[in-house]
Amino acid sequence: MAEFGVHHATSKGSKPSIFEIIGQDNLLTALRSAFRHGFKVLAENYPERYGLVHKYFDEGYTVVDSVFQYIHLRLKGGLFPETFYGLKRVPDPRSLDVSKRKVVAWVVLAVVLPYLQSQLELLYKNIREEYSQGTFHYKDLKKRLALLFLKVYPIYNFLWETTVLCYYLAYALKKTDYHSPIMHLTSTKLTHLSFMDFSDDAWQEFIPKKQQREISTKLWNYLNTFVGGITLTISVGAFLSQFVNWWYSREGNSAAFASLPVPPPPKKWPCDTPLEICHLCKKERTNDTALSSSGFVFCYPCIFRFVQENHKCPVTGYRSSLNQVIKLYHQE
Fold it and tell me: Any stretches that span the bilayer, and where are they (predicted)?
């Protein structure tokens, strides 16, 4: 059905504005940040239950989002943020058939590529931090590759951001029909949804009769309803979040907010190690140092070396960096 799920290839629609384009481009990033913050709050309050989920959030979210966007493309003719803004994808008019390979390519470029770029940025920050603090202990080939990465990545990031900006400007000035290099690479354009596109079973008439027997119509109807429910939920959630922000930002609400009861402290992480013992060397702590990502205290040499090598808290497993290693000073 993927060959026909993107069912608006031959329909004509108006060209979206640059504000709609930027809005739908930013929606994917905003949703990822919102879900990450939610799981972070859960992990801080229930670390034994949600700590592992928060640790591998980026990988898990990428897998789930890829599956969801693939289904959304086949049912709605566009990624979720595109249809959320009333837009749909139009393939290259010289090749109207939309194969499964092209749908998968759309998902990879829209979901997997941003994930890889974020991991490259995180790797660059960690290597640069180690290099600036004099803790750069790579050897031989690994060291040369790390130094090369420190030089190449800023150039790549600058060229990429500049290219995206140029495409935005060219699109706003009506010099091109493609708003991003990725869309240009796949010869894909965006246009507004038509009246027919809002029908829940619009995709059915684009499936040849030969394939209707192979496809479970009821299953796709359920998926269509599920995708529509998620869209409605996010729409209502966005409205409610904006309403709550507006409500508490009004003048005169600071006193009412301050009068709310103080929430109970989060549950402590179960640990049998005495307070004065380092969790790593199992000896009495020296040069007490706290890890702000989890709040546990260790010996400075122990936690510095562990975070430098593993980039996480040794007790909770939370992602950590050397910037979160805080030296504690006791008044004598």
Answer: 145-170, 219-240
* Rounded-to-integer distance, Cα 6 and Cα 25, Å: 19
Instruction: Give the chain's end-to-end CA distance (angstroms, integer).
Output: 73
Q: Are 12 and 233 in contact (CB under 8 A)?
A: no
Tokens of 190: 């965006």
Here the tokens at position 289 are 């140092």
Would the pLDDT of 277 be above 80?
A: yes
Displacement of CA 327 from its chain's centroid (Å): 32
* The predicted structure's pLDDT at residue 167: 93
User: Which residues pair with residue 297 across a beta bridge?
Assistant: 290
Name residues whose C-beta falls within 8 Å of residue 194's C-beta, 6 or more positions apart in sequence: 8, 11, 13
State mean pLDDT over 17-30: 85
Residue 203, pLDDT score: 44
State the pLDDT at residue 69: 87
Distance CA(211)–CA(5), nearest Å, equals 12
How is 179-229 classified by DSSP, letter by letter? SSHHHHHTT-EEEE--SGGG-TTGGGGGS-HHHHTTS-HHHHHHHHHHHHH
Specify the pLDDT at position 145.
Answer: 87
Q: How many CB atoms are located within 10 Å of the residue 156 CB?
A: 13
Number of H helices, E strands in the chain: 13, 5
Q: Which of 8, 69, 25, 30 is nearest to 192 (CA)?
A: 8
Among 69-73, 199-203, 252-256, name the most confident range. Answer: 69-73
Sheet with 297-299, edge to edge strand ranges: 297-299, 288-291, 325-327
Query: In sequence order, which residues have a C-beta less than 8 Å from that of residue 48 and are 6 or more positions away?
Result: 269, 270
Contact by Cβ (8 Å): 179, 190 = yes
For residues 87 and 262, the model is more confident at: 87
